[in-house]
């Protein structure tokens, strides 16, 4: 029953995540927390696998549909996100070891996610002033920041990806979503490799991947197709709607933990 529920959640989340550039994890993580069927570590791992699979499918589909990438930008953002993804997962494991109860880590994840959600919603809604950095260091540092947050929070990419790319490089929202998915691919790959080398996969119920991976593939395909059909304005509306929905879920999850 849980596998079926996860399957449905991931298809929905990854479809929306591919369209909006958020990666799906920003929905998967809090909804899985809400369901409460697995530990914080397991939920973070399942979310990572789902989002990584979606990013592979979505990027491949975008290339086949003729989407253009600036490979220099992709390269430096991705290099930064790999470093950030490794640092984020190491930090996550250290926090789990430091706190006596895992719910403290979950609460920290929720608080940081809410902060990034509020920033992203206000940025897109009110069209803050943007910049046009073009240096290698800017791309690298941006990738590291986003990779770190994605890995630490277990949300793949989240709204902060799109908002920060638009803020620092003046990307239109549809371009920002494409580069966001590339960052998500690299940061989540780095996280999976780090898990494999540091702790291994034995502590997770890997049978759940039989539902998670196919659902992630379907969601990635749907999302890539929709992304090419929707206008900039509609993508922005989807982005704002998802941010608001996830904000409400995270606030509820935080309230449930505290009270």
Please describe what this structure looks like.
This protein is mainly alpha-helical. It is 81% helix and 0% strand. Helix 4 (71-98) packs parallel to helix 6 and helix 5 crosses helix 7. The protein is globular and about 45 Å long. The two termini are 28 Å apart. 50% of the residues are buried. The model has no long low-confidence stretch (mean pLDDT 86).
Structure described in brief:
With 259 residues, the protein is an all-alpha fold.
Helix-strand blueprint:
Layout: H1 2-20, H2 25-35, H3 40-64, H4 71-98, H5 102-126, H6 136-153, H7 159-169, H8 173-198, H9 209-229, H10 232-258
Round the Cα radius of gyration to an integer and report it.
17 Å
Strand residue content? under 5%
Which stretches of 5+ consecutive residues score pLDDT under 50?
A: none
Helix count from the secondary structure assignment: 10
- Provide the structure class: mainly alpha
Count of domains: 1
Largest sheet: none
Order of helices and strands: HHHHHHHHHH
Q: Report the helical percentage.
A: over 70%
Mean pLDDT: 86
Shape: globular
Instruction: Give the beta-strand count.
Output: 0
CA(first)-CA(last) distance: 28 Å
List keywords for this structure.
mainly alpha
């Amino acid at each position: 029953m849980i596998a079926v529920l996860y399957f449905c959640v991931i298809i929905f989340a990854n479809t929306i995540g591919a369209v909006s550039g958020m990666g799906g994890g920003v929905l998967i993580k809090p909804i899985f927390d809400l369901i409460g069927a697995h530990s914080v570590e397991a939920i973070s791992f399942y979310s990572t696998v789902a989002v990584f699979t979606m990013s592979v499918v979505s990027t491949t589909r975008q290339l086949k549909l003729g989407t253009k990438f600036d490979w220099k930008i992709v390269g430096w953002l991705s290099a930064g996100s790999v470093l950030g993804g490794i640092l984020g997962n190491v930090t996550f494991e250290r926090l789990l070891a430091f706190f006596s109860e895992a719910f403290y880590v979950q609460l920290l994840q929720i608080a940081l996610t809410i902060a990034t959600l509020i920033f992203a919603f206000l940025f897109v809604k009110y069209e803050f002033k943007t910049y046009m950095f073009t240096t290698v260091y800017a791309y690298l540092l941006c990738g590291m920041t986003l990779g770190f947050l994605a890995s630490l929070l277990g949300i793949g990419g989240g709204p902060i990806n799109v908002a920060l790319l638009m803020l620092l490089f003046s990307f239109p929202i549809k371009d920002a979503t494409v580069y966001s998915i590339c960052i998500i691919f690299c940061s989540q790959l780095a996280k999976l490799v780090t898990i494999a080398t540091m702790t291994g996969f034995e502590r997770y119920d890997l049978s759940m991947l039989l539902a998670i991976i196919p659902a992630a593939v379907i969601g990635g395909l749907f999302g890539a197709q929709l992304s090419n059909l929707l206008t900039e304005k509609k993508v922005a509306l989807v982005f704002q709607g998802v941010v608001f929905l996830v904000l409400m879920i995270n606030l509820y999850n935080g309230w449930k933990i505290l009270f």
